[in-house]
Amino acid sequence: MVLEEYMSGRRVLPPHLRKQPDPEPEFEYVLRDATTADLPDIREIYNYYVLNTVVTFDEKAMSLREWRSKFAHLTKHGFPIIVAQSPSGQIHGYALVAPWRQKSAFRFTVENSIYIRPVSRGKGLGRVLLTALVERCRENGYREMIAVIADSGAEASLKLHADLGFTEVGRMGRVGFKFGHDVGTITLQKSLKKKSTH
Ligand SMILES: CC(C)(COP(=O)(O)OP(=O)(O)OC[C@H]1O[C@@H](n2cnc3c(N)ncnc32)[C@H](O)[C@@H]1OP(=O)(O)O)[C@@H](O)C(=O)NCCC(=O)NCCS
Predict the structure, then answer these.
(1) Around Cβ 154, how many Cβ atoms within 10 Å?
(2) 152 pLDDT more than 60
(3) Which of 50, 57, 127, 145 to mutate to test the pocket of ligand 1 (most atoms within 8 A of CB)?
(4) Nearest CA to ligand 1 atom 14
(5) Is 174 exposed, middle or buried (0-12, 13-18, 19+ CB in 10 A)?
(6) What angle do CA 49, 55, 58 make, to 5 degrees?
(7) I need a labelling partner for 22 at 20 to 30 A (CA). Which of 63, 66, 106, 117 fits?
(8) Can you name the residues that pair with 145 across neighbouring β-strands?
(9) What pLDDT shows up at residue 101?
(10) Residues 114, 84 contacting (CB under 8 angstroms)
(11) Residues near ligand 1 with C-beta < 6 Å?
(12) What is the C-alpha separation between 36 and 67, in angstroms, rounded?
């Protein structure tokens, strides 16, 4: 029986003749160190969260100039900035660390920052990026990693950090105020020291 007969009669094609939906495009990426060419993508990803969520306490979109200056400062001092790049060249997300505090005795402690493009969330990339960041920081000799996470709206981040062995070390209520609401922070910490084999 030909297609036209189905269309004029039963009008419903049997399953094997129906057009199959296009397969989901593969979620592919490579991890690599960020370069200045990635800063427009990084800025776009970060600014989405600045302007739409309380997961960051910044309220004003960051300019490219500010990102260039931040990138120069971090890379000059050897802090890793890792990006996940798709085969077409788009950045899916990034992870970086910055000094936890400026005073010199804090020099082995870093604070992380990880942001995934909204459409690329929930596909396991956050776990891959944060794992790579932890490993890189361990190789670089940092000893402790801190994550400061908003106490509302950041459930995925809390789950991810807990899964990777970060433990809660403190909470502060109402230290932020964004979109007309108080926001607090939950601080998590992970030791990066290599476990002794003895
Ligand atoms: C937090 C973030 C980095 C996680 O990255 P991701 O790629 O989306 O997360 P993954 O797919 O690797 O998932 C990590 C875990 O979180 C869980 N998760 C995802 N969304 C969740 C949600 N809304 N609530 C609870 N758990 C959630 C996943 O189920 C997964 O656990 P599982 O493997 O046991 O299923 C990402 O969602 C993001 O960029 N969020 C906005 C920015 C942000 O909060 N950054 C952190 C600032 S401290």
Answers:
(1) 21
(2) yes
(3) 127
(4) 160
(5) exposed
(6) 65
(7) 117
(8) 110, 190
(9) 97
(10) no
(11) 49, 55, 114-116, 121-127, 147, 149, 154-157, 159-160
(12) 9
Exposure b/e, 125-145, CB count within 10 A at least 16 = b: bbebbbeebbebbeeeebebb
User: Which tokens go with 29?
Assistant: 């990426």
**Pocket residue to mutate for ligand 1, from 83, 116, 187, most atoms within 8 A of Cβ:** 116
Which amino acid makes up residue 64?
A: L
Extract the tokens encoding 58: 């910044």
Confidence check: pLDDT of 3 > 80: no
Whole-structure pTM value: 0.90
Three-state DSSP class for 48? helix
Point out the ligand 1 atom lying closest to the alpha carbon of residue 149.
48
Nearest alpha carbon, ligand 1 atom 6: 126
Q: What is the mean pLDDT of the chain?
A: 93
Q: How many whole angstroms from 122 Cα to the centroid of ligand 1?
A: 6
Residue 192 identity: L
What is the average pLDDT across 105-118?
98
CB 182 within 8 A of CB 174: yes
> What is the Cβ-side half-sphere exposure of residue 66, based on CA atoms within 13 angstroms?
10
The pLDDT of residue 1 is: 47
Angle made by CA atoms 154, 79, 194, in degrees to the nearest 5: 80
Residue 160 CA, ligand 1 centroid: distance in Å: 6
